[in-house]
């Protein structure tokens, strides 16, 4: 799933590439992914793109036209991506026969497709007058890379929560933009078990967690900056220390990276760095997790 750094990379790319261009055509290929009807998707046609912003994991393309200022807002979900081309193909899209959910054609001949792999379709896009009209954006917590987000902000968000810290980091209503992959990386850097209860963290724990969050996300955003969409996924994989590296050697201590599997995903961690050498129970084999 694209998370804050990759989404920011896409936003930076789009801001530099499409600002000032006009949307000549918006072709819906998966009607189920379109979550709004007012304004209609046709409101984008003839609109000039004025900028691109990120809200958590949402991408927001702002436009202006004689009839209004519609925003195209999209969330790539678990298996979605943005596929850019400098010269858009004239081939017609056949709805239901393609991984493409939406095609945007631009005035210089370029454009992009929103695509989604697999059979479980969660990618969503909306045309709205204000990004806050998208429920997922309206529910977002603060952004960890906002200059106003301090160590005290983090402490206030987790105080009293009898929830595992891994879940807190992934909850978009608490923190915007962090998902499964970067929560693994943050907790590894902080030397903290993913099962630690948020309410039990000490001041030293919160200091480490805040420092790890800031450094991990800042580095990942810097790594994504300037890369075209086609290169962002590989850049993400290369930068991971534990996530997606089950069975490999921890680059910090040399122990073996382990996984815990859930219904539709997994988490990765280093026992030596994070759990005092304890191997965490696999949910597929045991419900007695500590």
Automatic annotation (TrEMBL):
UniProt catalytic activity: Hydrolysis of DNA containing ring-opened 7-methylguanine residues, releasing 2,6-diamino-4-hydroxy-5-(N-methyl)formamidopyrimidine
- Formamidopyrimidine-DNA glycosylase catalytic domain: residues covered: 2-123
GO biological process, alphabetically ordered: base-excision repair
Presence of keyword Disulfide bond: no
Q: Which PROSITE patterns match?
A: FPG_CAT (PS51068), ZF_FPG_2 (PS51066)
Q: Indicate the family of this protein.
A: Belongs to the FPG family.
Q: Boundaries of each FPG-type domain copy?
A: 241-275
In Swiss-Prot or TrEMBL terms, this protein is called Formamidopyrimidine-DNA glycosylase
Specify whether Transmembrane helix is a keyword of the entry: no
Q: Which organism is it from?
A: Microbacterium pygmaeum
Q: Which cofactor does it need?
A: Zn(2+)
Q: Which GO terms describe its molecular function?
A: 8-oxo-7,8-dihydroguanine DNA N-glycosylase activity; damaged DNA binding; DNA-(apurinic or apyrimidinic site) endonuclease activity; lyase activity; zinc ion binding
Sorted keywords for this record are: DNA damage, DNA repair, DNA-binding, Glycosidase, Hydrolase, Lyase, Metal-binding, Multifunctional enzyme, Zinc, Zinc-finger
């Amino acid at each position: 799933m694209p998370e804050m750094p990759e989404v920011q990379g896409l936003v930076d790319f789009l801001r530099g590439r499409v600002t000032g261009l006009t949307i000549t055509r918006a072709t819906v290929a998966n009607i189920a992914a379109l979550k709004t009807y007012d304004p209609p998707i046709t409101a984008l046609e003839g609109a000039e793109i004025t900028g691109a912003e990120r809200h958590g994991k949402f991408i927001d393309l702002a436009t202006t036209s004689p009839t209004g200022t519609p925003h195209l807002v999209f969330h790539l979900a678990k298996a979605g991506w943005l596929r850019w081309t400098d010269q858009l193909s004239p081939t017609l899209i056949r709805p239901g026969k393609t991984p493409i959910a939406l095609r945007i054609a631009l005035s210089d001949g370029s454009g992009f497709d929103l695509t989604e792999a697999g059979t479980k379709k969660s990618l969503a896009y909306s045309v709205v007058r204000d990004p806050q009209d998208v429920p997922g954006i309206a529910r977002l917590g603060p952004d960890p890379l906002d200059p106003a987000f301090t160590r005290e902000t983090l402490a206030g968000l987790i105080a009293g929560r009898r929830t595992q810290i891994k879940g807190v980091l992934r909850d978009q209503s608490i923190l915007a933009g962090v998902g499964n992959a970067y929560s693994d990386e943050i907790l590894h850097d902080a030397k903290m078990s993913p099962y630690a209860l948020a309410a039990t963290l000490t001041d030293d724990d919160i200091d480490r967690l805040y420092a790890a969050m800031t450094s991990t996300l800042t580095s990942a955003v810097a790594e994504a900056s300037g890369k075209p969409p086609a290169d962002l996924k590989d850049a993400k994989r290369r930068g991971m220390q534990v996530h997606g590296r089950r069975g490999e050697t921890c680059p910090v201590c040399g122990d073996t990276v382990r996984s815990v599997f859930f219904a539709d995903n997994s988490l990765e961690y280093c026992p030596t760095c994070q759990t005092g050498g304890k191997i965490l129970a696999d949910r597929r084999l045991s419900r007695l997790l500590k």
